[in-house]
């Protein structure tokens, strides 16, 4: 092997050493659940490279545990919320969304907006708990952070960055209708081939699907509000002491790290300050716990099926569990099912229930044949990483969309949790396990995922370090940020040019008419003479 | 230093070993002069990594020398052209373009189209010399290449790829108006903030500049034809035995490697199958020849100025040379001037003339203070790489644009070769050498250039290898390629939705009128009763 790559890598490896002789200081404004799991991978890597990472978290956080064994520092701020209250809110939002997402979009979307606005109020209270906490703000100010890393679905990070006058960047899966990516980030999403999130469409659309995509785009652009913007705009203007908006403040992000890549997402236009780092949390499988490994090995040539509905859904109805268990009992594979409810009486001897599963380690096990999933982005990416075909049972948020993507790419069969029968689940499992089409496609996506010039995690960390080294990434910022919407679409220019054409046409017609009249009159005069 | 990067790199390093146990076979359709110099860097790297590279070149090529000491294979095909004839044609096109480019665009552009069409005819003849050479085509077919690398400003590579049924990719600086990048590649170029090539505009435009940019965009999109497309379309349809066009065939490219990056170019939207690899040919300076090093060292603390107008311009008028020499004589720096004409009598003792200069080695020399350049992209990138401020004397093609970019970025002063005086040149040199603003900006661009996750050359080679490994890069191809222009802009969808709105409005109005009439009649009837 030639070693000439090494010097470049040495530079990257040592990049945290600034001219001042110190590593960087990163402040993190995180969100909960799977978003935290994803962003934590980046933080661990930053720590590995010698940076100092401080996570701002409320005393009532559900998943962010300040006592975890980690070099990450936690700045825990007091809040009027308590943990149980937040957990109950999240569970009720999820249940509501899951229930509503089976209804027609026009009944469903206003309900989702209601959920989002409750979530927006919760976030605003948290943000105020930080910003109006003078002692904390003084401490943060004095810490002189180099950069803020925030999740764009939880506003506040951008406000802190403006207050402390430091650059910030986002990690983000999506905002409804790509609204903030578009209106704050400048991302383009032509509705003719970029399916809007929650449409469950692919990039290859029929005429009727393109109509649906256009209507969804218009709806999300002009009607749906993810956050109660009026309140946020007022809050941000008040704190910053100048009239501003949430959207404008978010637009100051140096980089947008999108948690997808072209293995999973459909190719679409983007800008230099966007990078697609989907699957950055994926890693090779580690050995399983002894008991679990024995159970997996006992599956013999048939292999195993992994089944989980994610970190947010702990339980399903007893009836549903019975139906699922009876389907699982009929396959020759062994099944590992993350399930916290009452053991169904139809449970086969091939199925074991677990309160928690080492999902990535199981998906990376050579015996794994299929993954039954709700379709969260983290889980989907672990399946892509290890090349495992899916049976998708999407519940809410981007999950129906995620499964639709994997179905289009030939690596998944989709089921509806409300209407599916035991036979449907059985058939779906048999299909993805026995039809080589699904495994081949899963392996193709895996090959694409692994064959990138730089691993997604290294790219994410690179951009954070870049911002720290250069105090921003202004050279990547498109000038479209400085244009009004009518300038951006060249409407003023088109208007001016059309006016010019109209004036010239008018003058020409007038001249022609005048000349014609003159000639006509002269002709008449001559005739009279 | 942590060594965990190494395994990933091992994979990249060994990537040329396919499952069949052999490295890749690359066929190259090159163009002449600076384009060849640039693409050759990629070929050398491919060779270094164990691939087999075959360059298709005519017996009359100007710069491509099949006898050069290199592991590159040359497949030399006979042509009815001779080398002198081609060289004379190029020189006359350049002189014509340089002369015309000082005139108003509306006189200048049609002349450039004339030049392009002559160039187009020359390329078509070369392409026919290959495609209609049965013995050669049979040999190429039997060689079973894995990929074709072509320069998009010299059509034919895409035709060969279609005939041999192998994937291909482009290396490209630009086509006039970004026409082929847009209409074949699907690239977006909103005229509100993406200055069209040859406009000499930046991304920050005034209203009048945006009008200019819009008019240029419309002109290049709907009027200007880089190649005589009618002839190419007919030729391609004939060879492929089905109705097709040059633009459609070019649209099948797997990847477009653009020879710029965000150090030099303005941020703009792009697509996943575009990568920006500007400056891939740059490398650290090697030691200078002994005599040259001595001359450079004799400059003391003042340092040196490097002056060249590129590989295509060998000479300027005697009068112009006298004027330039007298300006150079007045600076305290030593000057190395690439000049092939009669020695000007005003030449100072500080200036030495050379028929050829090791440009990159000189720009990377610690004594170098400034670079006087015509503004070719290769030279500009060497200056960026080494952080050297520029005095630009642009002549033709993208050179005025390139210098305008560097001027906007604060690293260059621009001069007009026709109107500049000795004092202008002297002042420009004094400015870029003595005003720290220029050096600082040049160093900033250099820092951006060097701080990329992967070096441009490695990215270029990565994508070529990727295409060979995966027989294409279909996962990066946007679905917009399968849409007609009116589908792409959603005009059919908008038309349908407007028609629906119109029909609904019409029906509502009719219903209202009908109800009103009914009520009105009933009212009248009642009154009568």
From TrEMBL, chains A, B:
Main location (coarse class): endoplasmic reticulum
SUPFAM superfamilies per the UniProt record, alphabetical: UDP-Glycosyltransferase/glycogen phosphorylase (SSF53756)
Protein topology in the membrane: Single-pass membrane protein
Molecular-function GO terms, alphabetical: glucuronosyltransferase activity
InterPro entries cross-referenced by the UniProt entry: UDP-glycosyltransferase, UDP_glucos_trans, UDP_glycos_trans_CS
Entry annotated with the keyword Metal-binding: no
Catalysis: reaction(s): glucuronate acceptor + UDP-alpha-D-glucuronate = acceptor beta-D-glucuronoside + UDP + H(+)
Secretion signal, residue range per the UniProt entry: 1-23
Documented EC number(s): 2.4.1.17
Compartment(s): Endoplasmic reticulum membrane; Membrane
CDD domains in the cross-refs: GT1_Gtf-like
Chain segments annotated as transmembrane: 493-516
Keyword Ribonucleoprotein: no
GO CC terms in record: endoplasmic reticulum membrane
Key words, A-Z: Endoplasmic reticulum, Glycoprotein, Glycosyltransferase, Membrane, Signal, Transferase, Transmembrane, Transmembrane helix
Similarity-based family: Belongs to the UDP-glycosyltransferase family.
PANTHER family: EG:EG0003.4 PROTEIN-RELATED, UDP-GLUCURONOSYLTRANSFERASE 2B4
Protein name from the UniProt record: UDP-glucuronosyltransferase
Organism: Chrysochloris asiatica
Gene: UGT2B17
């Amino acid at each position: 092997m030639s070693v000439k790559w090494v010097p470049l890598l040495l530079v990257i490896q040592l990049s945290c050493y600034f001219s001042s002789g110190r590593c960087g200081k990163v402040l993190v404004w995180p969100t909960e659940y799977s978003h935290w799991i994803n962003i934590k991978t980046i933080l661990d890597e930053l720590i590995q490279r010698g940076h100092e990472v401080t996570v701002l978290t409320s005393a009532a956080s559900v998943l962010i545990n300040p006592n975890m064994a980690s070099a990450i520092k936690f700045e825990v701020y007091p809040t009027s919320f308590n943990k149980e209250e937040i957990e109950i809110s999240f569970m009720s939002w999820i249940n509501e969304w899951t229930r509503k997402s089976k209804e027609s979009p026009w009944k469903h979307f206003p309900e989702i907006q209601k959920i989002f606005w409750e979530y927006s109020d919760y976030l605003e209270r948290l943000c105020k708990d930080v910003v109006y906490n003078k002692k904390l703000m003084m401490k943060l100010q004095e810490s002189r952070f180099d950069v803020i890393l925030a999740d764009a679905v939880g506003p506040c990070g951008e406000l802190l960055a403006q207050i402390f006058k430091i650059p910030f960047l986002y990690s983000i899966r999506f905002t409804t209708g790509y609204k903030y990516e578009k209106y704050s980030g400048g991302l383009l999403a032509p509705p003719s081939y970029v399916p809007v999130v929650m449409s469950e469409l692919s990039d290859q659309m029929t005429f009727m699907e393109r109509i649906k995509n256009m209507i969804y785009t218009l709806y999300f652009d002009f009607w749906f509000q993810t956050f109660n913007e009026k309140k946020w705009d007022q809050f941000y203007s008040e704190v910053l002491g100048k009239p501003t908006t949430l959207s404008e403040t978010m637009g100051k992000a140096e980089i947008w790290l999108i948690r997808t890549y072209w293995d999973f997402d459909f190719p679409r236009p983007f800008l230099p300050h966007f990078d697609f780092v989907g699957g950055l949390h994926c890693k090779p499988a580690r050995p399983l716990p002894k008991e679990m490994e024995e159970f997996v090995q006992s599956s013999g040539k048939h292999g195993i099926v992994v089944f989980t509905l994610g970190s947010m859904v702990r339980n399903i109805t007893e009836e549903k569990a019975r139906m699922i268990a009876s389907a699982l009992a009929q396959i020759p594979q062994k099944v590992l099912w993350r399930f916290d409810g009452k053991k169904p009486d139809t449970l086969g001897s091939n199925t074991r229930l677990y309160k928690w599963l080492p999902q990535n380690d199981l998906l990376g096990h050579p015996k794994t044949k299929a993954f039954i999933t709700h379709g969260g982005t983290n889980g989907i990416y672990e399946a892509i990483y290890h090349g495992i075909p899916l049976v998708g049972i999407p519940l809410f948020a981007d999950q129906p969309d995620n499964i639709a993507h994997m179905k289009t790419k030939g690596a998944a069969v989709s089921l509806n949790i409300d209407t599916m029968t035991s036979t449907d689940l059985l058939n779906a499992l048999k299909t993805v396990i026995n039809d080589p089409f699904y495994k081949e496609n899963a392996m193709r996506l895996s090959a694409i995922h692994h064959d990138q010039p730089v691993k997604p995690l290294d790219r994410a960390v690179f951009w954070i370090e870049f911002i720290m080294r250069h105090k921003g990434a202004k050279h990547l910022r498109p000038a479209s940020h400085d244009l009004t919407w009518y300038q951006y679409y060249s409407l003023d220019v088109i208007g001016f040019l059309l006016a010019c054409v109209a004036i010239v046409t008018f003058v020409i017609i007038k001249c022609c008419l005048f000349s014609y009249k003159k000639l006509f009159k002269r002709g008449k005069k001559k005739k009279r003479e």
